[in-house]
Amino acid sequence: MKTTPITFNTEMAQAIREGRKTQTRRVVKDGTTECPYGSSGDVLVCEDIRLLIREVRKQRLQDIHAGDALAEGLTAKDWLRGTALHGPDWAVHKFRDIWEYIYGPGSWDKNPEVWAITFETLQEDK
């Protein structure tokens, strides 16, 4: 079992603590064939949070679907409100906004390959 540090911004670390965030996407570096964060059964460490990797997929960013967008940390309240007002693809649009906030304007349109990492919280070290 491999243990690898990973960084999340404050908001996303809080979403992990609250159980809202169970996936993350990281851009694949050119020529990379194996996920540098690990594979199923490996552990990610963020601050005082330990995360067990359940699945790693390589995919295009825009292949994300609504369920995965929700697993990226959207709140259930935002999900229900957004879906009621804007339809089922709302979560993907919200994720796009978050992605462009982090990676810059136009980054979504580049549709890079990403590592889609699904995880569960093991424990918090206190």
Structure description:
The chain is α+β, with helices and mostly antiparallel strands. It has a single domain, classed as Sulfate adenylyltransferase (Roll). Helices cover 31% and strands 29% of the residues. The chain has 4 helices and 5 strands, in the order E-H-E-E-E-H-H-H-E. The protein has helices at residues 10-17, 66-71, 76-86, 90-103; strands spanning 3-5, 23-27, 43-46, 49-60, 113-124. It has a 5-stranded mixed sheet. A hairpin with a 2-residue loop joins strand 3 (43-46) and strand 4 (49-60). The protein is globular. The two termini are 22 Å apart.
Intertermini distance: 22 Å
Helix-strand string:
EHEEEHHHE
**Helical content class:** 25-40%
What number of structural domains do the residues give?
1
Put the structure in a nutshell.
With 126 residues, this protein is α+β, with helices and mostly antiparallel strands. The chain has helices spanning 10-17, 66-71, 76-86, 90-103; strands at 3-5, 23-27, 43-46, 49-60, 113-124.
Question: How are the elements arranged and paired?
Answer:
Layout: E1 3-5, H1 10-17, E2 23-27, E3 43-46, E4 49-60, H2 66-71, H3 76-86, H4 90-103, E5 113-124
